[in-house]
Specification:
This protein is mostly helical and about 160 residues long. It has helices at about 1-20, 25-30, 30-40, 45, 60-65, 65-95, 100-125, 135-159, and strands at about 50-55, 55-60.
């Protein structure tokens, strides 16, 4: 019974990711809300020293502006979160199919990588979106964190 329930949750979560990937950037644009929320917060002074490259693009307040800089981190945190959950659900399903926890973790990690790759390919064909290898790696990290968290929680629960 639990296996079927976890499969349903995994399927629904995968469909939710697919739905979000089907939206264009303009449909997910957070800048109007962030502009109102941040207002004259002067956060640009706090974050002005942060600068790095992501997908060949400079990420900094000077280059993007404060609102787009914050939006970048929200979007990347969303990648980590949704794939953290996907990794967790994948591990829960895998442990119901394979007896070996190691094999279950490997299968779950492979599934997350495959889904992240297919998700970025899907975004490539969505108007206003782009496919980034860096996002696949970020998604994979989120998925692995979810798998590791499940392993830790279940080991603690056993003790």
């Amino acid at each position: 019974m639990k296996r079927k329930l976890f499969i349903v949750f995994l399927t629904l979560w995968g469909l939710l990711i697919f739905f979000f990937s089907s939206q264009s950037y303009s449909e997910q644009n957070l800048t109007p809300y962030l502009t109102v929320l941040l207002g004259d917060s002067h956060l640009d002074k706090v974050f002005s020293h942060i600068q790095f490259a992501y997908a060949g693009r400079e990420i900094s307040v000077a280059n993007l502006g404060m609102v787009h800089f914050i939006e970048f981190f929200i979007r990347k945190a969303a990648h980590l979160f949704v794939f953290f959950v996907l990794g967790s659900l994948s591990w829960l399903v895998s442990t119901r199919i394979w007896k070996s926890k190691v094999i279950a973790a490997i299968v779950a990690a492979f599934f997350v990588f495959l889904y992240a790759s297919l998700d970025e390919i899907h975004q490539h064909y969505t108007n206003g979106r782009s496919a980034l290898v860096e996002d696949v790696l970020l998604d994979k990290c989120g998925g692995i964190l979810g798998i590791v968290m499940c392993i830790i929680v279940f080991r603690m629960k056993k003790k």
